[in-house]
Design goal:
Shape: globular
Structural class: alpha+beta
Number of helices: 10
Strand order of the largest sheet: 1-31-32-34-33-35-36-37-38
Strand content: 25-35%
CATH architecture of the domain at 365-592: 3-Layer(aba) Sandwich
Distance between the termini: 29 Å
């Protein structure tokens, strides 16, 4: 096994007292960087407000409350979202609200001439007040693209409510793009915006005044997130190439005259999501995962070759580049350094720190030494994970272990700055282990598909062989093991405790426990059929409930009552069986919460509740 320490840039305090729950919940980093067209300033968001920073001197000033800043093409104004409405804020002058409360704005973009802004808004519901819901008929969500005049504030429709412009974004990003002459808008046409509708996404173009809709191509799988080339002759877009949930996305271009499609990332074995043209149309920059890191890449628009620009084990995201492709702003973080805004020249990658928002908040937090761990699983497959040693780690001493399996299963544990339960447990004497078992993202399509028809089999062995390696290294006390995961991590937690009694405590959040009933009630059944097949006679083999009579691990279970992805009854199945087993258990239902823990009050309660539960059982 190889262990790669991540120590570079560690600025956190050694020997400091653990952070309080209030400190942890107050943490706010910097995000949503947007570099000005001339590259001299960067707008970013922190604390519910948009700030601007001077690239040369680094000085920051608050511009206005809001989020999602976007520079006007002339660099004199910034558009932003505040409470669902569009505002324009001049760098010098009075802010002006563009839209009214009747239309909630979402994603938006300036027209290249700076005269208009296109934005996304929910289309009116087809269901009349008081009428019954007819499932998948009058309850299907749809979005429209609207256009607001920046001078007169007049709003017009660019797309019709009879279909959806764009849609649900969990698995792949989706956006729209103005043509260089500001006359047309390219977008993703979908029949509706329901989860899973991206598989029916096709490229379309419409005049900005709502006339002449044209669907450019009807192809299998997802085609979406189009971006017009600077010369107006091509659209770049991302595509899965077929109707398949377990698939990476490629970067393609469509010649608007010949309708010829070219795959620029055919040999690049990872998903391309957000991307940016350079002004001369020769290159497209994008960010993609590479194991526990995310890196900046550039694709040659003519030759199709992809080259890596950034290096190291950083997690880079939210890339914003100048139109000339010379400079960029982005968020950079790693396990030792919290997320901040950085800038770099793209010709020579040298990230330069621009903000110190998160660093000021965390400068007195305890240091958690973090290492990237690799080991061989039961069948020889190499698996990677992130391990955080406890604050004040002493070589030769064995510590209790918290295993945190990720969701998805296509999710991935990356080298991010530790927060949440990772920091809470790590600061209080625990080793925290975040494994990337087979089926995780960021390791290529073959690895992504390595758990097809095999949930609970190879991925379970990947986790357990990783635990055994940490024990063999002398880091972990084999008698003090706990596991905590949510979503697919909740499934893995439930599966693990149904297969072994080695863990003294478990926390299972919004997890799948009974596959036959789950496939009949989830909002995206076809997604899980792509993983498990359509023969439901095979589902019990992979269901924790099939083996739940074996469970002896005390388990805290939690779930949101509005969860449509993994319905609440999945957790009740497990809770009921644990009661029959006479195993200590607690079942917590968070009202008004959907899939996961999104609200701050829920996240706070979970950290404290999880800590009490696990430490009462693991001494």
């Amino acid at each position: 096994m190889r262990i790669l320490p991540i120590l570079l840039g560690m600025t956190l305090a050694a020997g400091a007292a653990p952070v309080s729950i209030d400190e942890l919940m107050r943490f706010q980093g910097a995000g949503q960087p947007a570099i000005s067209p001339d590259g001299s300033r960067v707008a970013y968001v922190t604390g519910g407000a948009v700030w601007t920073a001077d690239v040369a001197g680094g000085q920051s000033r608050k511009l206005h409350d809001g989020a999602s800043p976007a520079w006007s093409p002339d660099g004199a104004r910034i558009a932003l979202l505040l409470k669902g409405q569009l505002w324009i804020v001049p760098l010098e002058g009075q802010a002006a609200r563009l839209t009214t409360g009747e239309q909630k704005a979402d994603r938006f973009q300036w027209s290249p001439d700076g005269k208009k802004i296109a934005f996304l808004t929910p289309a009116p519901s087809l269901k009349k007040p008081g009428a019954p819901t007819v499932v998948d008929v009058n309850d299907l969500p749809r979005n429209q693209i609207m256009v607001v005049d920046a001078a007169t504030r007049a709003v017009t429709s660019a797309t019709s409510p009879e279909y959806s412009a764009l849609g649900y974004e969990q698995w792949f990003p989706d956006g729209f793009s103005w043509s260089p002459d500001s006359r047309r808008i390219a977008f993703t046409w979908r029949p509706h915006a329901k989860a899973g509708s991206h598989h029916q996404g096709d490229l379309a173009v419409v005049n900005a005044d709502g006339t002449r809709l044209e669907v450019l191509a009807r192809r299998p799988g997802y085609d979406g997130n189009p971006r017009w080339s600077p010369d107006g002759r091509q659209l770049a877009f991302i595509s899965t190439g077929r109707y398949d949930w377990v698939r990476i996305s490629n970067l393609l271009t469509l010649d608007l005259a010949s309708r010829q499609v070219r795959n620029l990332s055919r040999e690049f074995d990872e998903s391309v999501k957000e991307f940016h043209w350079t002004l001369d149309g020769s290159r497209l920059y994008f960010v993609a995962g590479q194991g526990v890191s995310t890196q900046v890449f550039v694709a040659d628009a003519r030759q199709g070759a992809v080259r890596q620009v950034s290096q190291g084990q950083d997690v880079i995201g939210e890339l914003s580049i100048t139109p000339d492709g010379k400079r960029c702003a982005f968020i950079r973080q790693n396990a030792a350094e919290p997320p901040e805004v950085y800038v770099s020249e793209l010709g020579e990658w040298k990230p330069r720190l621009l903000t110190r928002v998160a660093m000021e908040q965390t400068k007195n937090w305890p240091a958690l030494e973090t290492e990237i761990v690799r080991w061989k699983s039961f069948d020889g497959m190499e698996i990677e994970g992130v391990m955080h040693k406890p604050a004040g780690y002493e070589r030769g001493r064995r510590y209790p272990l918290l295993v945190v399996p990720h969701g998805g299963p296509h999710g991935v544990q990356t080298n991010v700055f530790p927060l949440g339960n990772t920091r809470w447990f790590g600061e209080r004497g625990w080793v925290v282990f975040r494994p990337n078992f087979r089926g995780s993202g960021n390791y290529g399509e073959r690895f992504l598909r390595a758990n097809l028809y095999g949930w609970g089999l190879g991925d379970y062995q990947d986790i357990m062989t990783g635990v055994d390696h940490l024990i063999a290294l002398g880091l972990v006390d084999r008698e003090r093991l706990a596991i905590s995961g949510s979503s697919y991590g909740g499934y893995m937690t439930s599966w693990v405790i149904s297969q072994t009694s080695r863990f003294k405590a478990a926390v299972a959040g919004c997890g799948i426990t009974d596959l036959p009933s789950f496939l009949r009630t989830t909002d995206v059944p076809d997604r899980f059929e792509d993983y498990l097949g359509v023969d439901d006679r095979l589902y019990p083999r992979h269901s924790p409930m099939t083996y739940a009579t074996n469970i002896r691990t005390p388990t805290l279970i939690w779930h949101g009552d509005l969860d449509e992805r993994v319905p609440l009854m999945q957790s009740r199945h497990l809770y009921t069986q644990l009661l029959k087993n006479k195993v200590s258990t607690e079942f917590v239902i968070y009202h008004g919460e959907a899939h996961g823990a999104r609200r701050a009050d829920v996240r706070r309660d979970l950290i404290e509740r999880e800590w009490r539960w696990i430490t009462s059982l693991v001494k």
